């Protein structure tokens, strides 16, 4: 499914956070969203998912959702957002609580999502027994259990150590390659964006505007650590230059109110 963002602007009270965002997330692509802290990335994701109503503009979807889709748009959160008193299977089935499903289909969906994330043997475990990487696998399984049309991932790997992050990145890619779920992926990690994305949208400092949309024109098989040289290194340098300017300017702006007045 395609996700269209047209002329979206948003503010929290007097604070403008997004301005005139136009984005078309193509069916089956991974679009990474990067930008300085506070540039409105999470806000934009919330607007895409319908958690927030923008004060201007609109979000729409086009195309047919995949078979068995219960929620067209589904989130994966940075902090996993698992309930500690529910087992792994219980946390995954949480996403089905609002849907009336026959018990058999419910069990089948949960088992399938767990299997896809390599969690089949951990169905009865509790979050506290799991590593961070395993917890986020549960978070992703919970998103997949509704067979979403578009996955919205807000810094899904940023709470993990570097190795676990690399591992989950590869796993996520393997799953995505099988299913081609359209995904919007927010990250601060340029390497992660360059590994995952078909295109990278760079937001300016607050209020976030789309500064540039950069296609990652290198096949994914050639992007792994060994292939960092050449084109990927060039893209990395370009993204970093864009971000550095915006981040510097944003730092100065945040310092402004403290200097003003007295
Ligand atoms: N509910 C809210 N009420 C008021 N201000 C908010 C609210 N949520 C976010 N903000 C402010 O809006 C701006 C954009 O926030 P948002 O979380 O969308 O940015 P972000 O790009 O996701 O930042 P980060 O990279 O730190 O996650 C920030 O300045 C933030 O402090
Ligand atoms: Mg955020």
> Under the CATH scheme, which architecture would be assigned?
3-Layer(aba) Sandwich
State the fourth-level CATH superfamily: P-loop containing nucleotide triphosphate hydrolases
The tally of structural domains comes to 1
The CATH topology label is Rossmann fold
Order of secondary-structure elements: EEEHEEHHHEHEHEEH
The hetero compounds bound to this protein are:
adenosine-5'-triphosphate, magnesium ion
What is the class in the CATH system? Alpha Beta
Quick rundown:
With 262 residues, this protein is α/β, with parallel strands linked by helices.
Question: Would you spell out the secondary-structure blueprint of this structure?
Answer:
Blueprint: E1 2-12, E2 15-25, E3 30-34, H1 41-48, E4 56-62, E5 73-76, H2 88-93, H3 103-116, H4 132-144, E6 150-154, H5 162-179, E7 182-186, H6 190-196, E8 199-203, E9 210-215, H7 230-259
Parallel strand pairs: 3-7, 3-8, 5-6, 6-7
Antiparallel strand pairs: 1-2, 1-4, 8-9
Helix pairs in contact: 3-4
Bound molecules: adenosine-5'-triphosphate (ATP) and magnesium ion.
Summarize the structure in words.
By secondary structure, this protein is α/β, with parallel strands linked by helices. The chain has a single domain (2-259), classed as 3-Layer(aba) Sandwich (Rossmann fold). It is 37% helix and 23% strand. The protein is built from seven helices and nine strands. It has helices spanning 41-48, 88-93, 103-116, 132-144, 162-179, 190-196, 230-259; strands at 2-12, 15-25, 30-34, 56-62, 73-76, 150-154, 182-186, 199-203, 210-215. The chain has a six-stranded mixed β-sheet with strand order 5-6-7-3-8-9, with helices on both faces. It has a three-stranded antiparallel β-sheet with strand order 2-1-4, with helices on one face. Helix 3 (103-116) packs across helix 4. It is globular, with a radius of gyration of 19 Å. The termini are far apart. The model has no long low-confidence stretch (mean pLDDT 90). The chain binds adenosine-5'-triphosphate (ATP) and magnesium ion (MG). Adenosine-5'-triphosphate binds at residues 12, 15, 17, 35, 37-43, 206.
């Amino acid at each position: 499914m395609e996700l269209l963002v047209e002329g979206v602007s948003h503010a929290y009270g007097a604070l403008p956070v997004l301005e005139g965002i136009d984005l078309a997330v193509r069916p089956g692509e991974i679009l990474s969203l990067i930008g300085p802290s506070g540039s409105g990335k999470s806000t934009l994701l919330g607007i895409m998912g319908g958690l927030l109503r923008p004060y201007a503009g609109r979000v729409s979807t086009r195309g047919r959702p995949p078979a068995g889709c219960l929620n067209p748009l589904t989130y994966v959160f940075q902090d996993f957002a698992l309930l500690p008193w529910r087992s792994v299977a219980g946390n995954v089935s949480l996403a089905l609580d609002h849907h009336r499903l026959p018990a058999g289909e419910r069990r089948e969906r949960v088992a399938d999502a767990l299997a896809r994330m390599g969690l089949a043997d951990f169905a009865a475990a509790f979050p506290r027994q799991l590593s961070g990487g395993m917890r986020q696998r549960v978070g992703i399984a919970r998103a997949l259990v509704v067979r979403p049309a578009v996955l919205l991932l807000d810094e899904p790997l940023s709470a993990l150590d570097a190795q676990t992050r690399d591992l989950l990145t590869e796993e996520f890619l393997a799953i995505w390659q099988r299913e081609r779920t359209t995904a919007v992926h927010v990250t601060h990690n340029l390497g992660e964006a360059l590994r995952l994305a078909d295109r990278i949208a760079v937001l300016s400092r607050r209020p976030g505007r789309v500064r540039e949309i950069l296609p990652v024109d290198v096949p994914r098989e050639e992007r792994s650590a060994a292939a960092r040289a050449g084109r990927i290194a060039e893209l990395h340098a370009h993204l970093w230059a864009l971000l550095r300017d915006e981040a510097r300017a944003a730092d100065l702006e945040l310092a402004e109110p403290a200097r003003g007045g007295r």
